[in-house]
Amino acid sequence: MGSVMNGWRIENGRTLTERGWSEASLHVAGEALAEDDAGAPRRIDASGLLVLPGMVDVHGDAFERHLMPRPGVRFDTTLALRDTDRQLVANGITTAFHGVTVSWEPGLRSVEAARAFVAALMARRGSLSCDTRLHLRWETFALDAAAEVAEWLKLSPAPILALNDHTTGSVLKGTIARKIGQMAERAGIGREDYMALLDRVWGRRDDVPAAIAALARAARDNGNVLLAHDESSPQEREHFRALGAVASEFPMTQETAEAARLAGEDIILGAPNVVRGGSHNGALDAAQAIREGRCTVLTSDYHYPSPLYAAFKLAAGDMEALATYWPLVSRNPARVARLSDRGTLAPGRRADLLLVDASDMAHPEVVATMVAGRIVYARRALDHRATSVNPALASAAE
């Protein structure tokens, strides 16, 4: 759903600005927020609604379920992208980095699958409602893919690169080794074949450090945001910091998270962790980490509705608390991604915003989503909320 005109005045809502809650009208001119309406012909009556900055999701891989909803059942990539796009904007995510795993595994997370997905996204991202980008999750044992990943780093907009090592855990750590059957199923091969492949990959472990250093250097030289995933100790955080990793993504221990915060770095955890009341795999409790200052960014991880629900759950019905927690899903992830044009509602910033019905604070509902000044989602008919100053003008939304 795209708007047909370039000016909006959003009035009668309660808007979260950089200075807190405001009852003042919010003005949109073209793709950006403006100081005044400059004669904007269209108005949205946001009575009873919250007007919130659009959410920025720096790590989400729920799109994989649209590609392969069941093991061995694969759907067209364009269909998956479009369906994912609708789910993103319906849940208030206005900027999304799709976490594309580039692994040594065959199947869903293979180099071939990543290659096809990258090509499809870059060809179609201009037609998507959400500003959709790449988060390249390079498995550090996928040595043969490193050169191709380095080329993808040069794409525009610049992808995020995350350094992932699930191979060592598969071999040495029982927490991941217990998932071997699931991994084999995802890869589309039998457990014994998967174990044999894992043995061959593990045999190249001495080549991994040099490959990590080279790809990290390529990311630094190209200006990509570099993240490190699943760091298990302060020493690992220090190591990846030296390579240029600017944030700790899903640190495994409180000590690791504390080391990142002491260095003034962002810590990224999953919003589903907050919504569900804890980690599903025994990792850090995100809500506790937030209360203790050891988490600054929440992502959708594997569930797109969770960022919205997590912020409201943390607020527990307190509007001032909501103003404190909302940056976890908007301003802070925008900072990590180096997107200084979004994440807050202020003149000159992109007009990425949500209208939210929070009459039930435990179950907030996104009523409408705007991306770059364009209404891309409306849960309810806007006829009674959006009007024209000139009755002859077209309706507020296509």
UniProtKB/TrEMBL annotation:
Pfam families the UniProt entry points to: Amidohydro_3
Annotated coiled-coil segments of the chain: none
InterPro entries: Amidohydro_3 (IPR013108), Metal-dep_hydrolase_composite (IPR011059), Metal_Hydrolase (IPR032466), Metallo-dep_Hydrolase (IPR051781), PhnM (IPR012696)
Annotated Amidohydrolase domain residues: 206-377
Membrane-traversing stretches: none
NCBIfam families with a match to the protein in the record: PRK15446.2-3, PRK15446.2-6
Name of the protein described by the UniProt record: Alpha-D-ribose 1-methylphosphonate 5-triphosphate diphosphatase
The species this protein was found in: Ancylobacter koreensis
